Amino acid sequence: MMKRTLMTSMSLVLALGLAACGNGNSGGGNAAEGSGEAATGGSGEKTKISYWTGDRHDADFVKEQVAEFNRANTDGIEVELVVKGDDFDTALDLSFQTSDAPDVIRVKENTIQTFYKKGFLAPIDEFLTDELKAKFPAMPDLNEFDGKRYSLPNYGTTMRLVYNKDLFAKAGVENPPTTLQELVDTAKKLTEAGKADGAYGFALNFKSPSSAFARSARVIAEMSGYGGFGYDFKTARYDFSGLEPIINAFKQIKDDGSMLPGVESLDIDPLRAQFAEGKIGMYISYSSEPGVYKNQFPAKIDWAAAPAPTIDGMVKGASGFLGGQWLSLSSKSENKEAAWKFMQFMYGDQVLTDYQEKGFGISMVPSISAVAATPDVNGIEGFLPNKNDGVWPIYPAVAPEGMKSDDAFFKYMLNGGDLKAVIADLNKRYNVALDSAIANDGIKAEPDAGFDPAGLGGKFAK
Question: What's the pTM value of the predicted model, to 2 decimals?
Answer without folding.
Answer: 0.80
